[in-house]
Amino acid sequence: MSEMLALIKEKGEVQLRTTPRPACDAPNHVLIRVKMAGICRTDLAVMRSQLVTPEPLIVGHEFAGEIVAIGDQVPDLHVGMPVTAMPLLPCGSCLACKEKRTESCYRGKMLGLHVSGAFAEFVCLPAEQVYALPKHWPTTLSWETAAFSEPVAAAAAILKADIHPDGLGAIVGQGRIAELSLRLLINQGFERVTLYRQPQDLPSNGFDWLIETGLSDTCLDPLIAALRPRGLLLLKSRHLPTLQFDPQLLIRKEIRVQGVYYAAFPWVLQWLADHAEQVQDLFGPVYPAQAWQSALDAAEAGETLKIFLSWP
Predict the structure, then answer these.
(1) Is the whole model's pTM more than 0.90, yes or no?
(2) Rounded mean pLDDT of the chain?
(3) Which residues, including other chains, have CB under 8 Å from residue 190's CB and lie 6 or more apart?
């Protein structure tokens, strides 16, 4: 069996080493040569052992690449096609999956977290999780833009919630996801939304809806206090610790709380094809896979810019 390079976590340590290339012989699977992968705070948490994962595990879930092999039951994809992928592998049996909303599957497994992921030369996935770049995808757009589809899908999930442009809204957070959420909302006609870096900066009873994109504190009370009665609190951070809140405040103000996960990938890719210029200033340096430690150090240093790994 052929081998490939991959960034692997095993026995609590991360190493770039050779490992067998995925066989990828299922009739409905696709083998992708990874061109570019983005480093996410989830990846950092995995490598710090802050999240429980199986081992050995290939880390990474944000990527784009080129199809090099397909099963004989894959009708709409072909070898050589540039693609990206939804990293949430749906269970196929929950209500969301039965309703064809697989991006909302709550039993799904994540690449690079529950199963081996995309910090590797090759990744094998079910064809239904693989998305060709749109036909009108500009040839000038980089592999970084295609790999950035996963963060956009995570942020764009807020658009599924019961929020409206005529309401007064706020976003709380300091990282890329906060800035990306703001840009998506403004692009979609939300002009009455403000980004707050710290919860303590929020005014009381000021907003119809509020989006949490990352908290340094585990207490939700400042966010609840900032909402008007019957306001909506959206929780976006994927790996929040156990949270604390005053239930009396929540009840008296009749606050609604909703989690949001992913937007549908076809919409995301169409949006990126048309509006890539709105996110490209969030792209940081591209490091070759062999310089993975320097890339991780850069990603650890801050969440303002997305750091990428390129693969041979």
Answers:
(1) yes
(2) 95
(3) 163, 165, 169
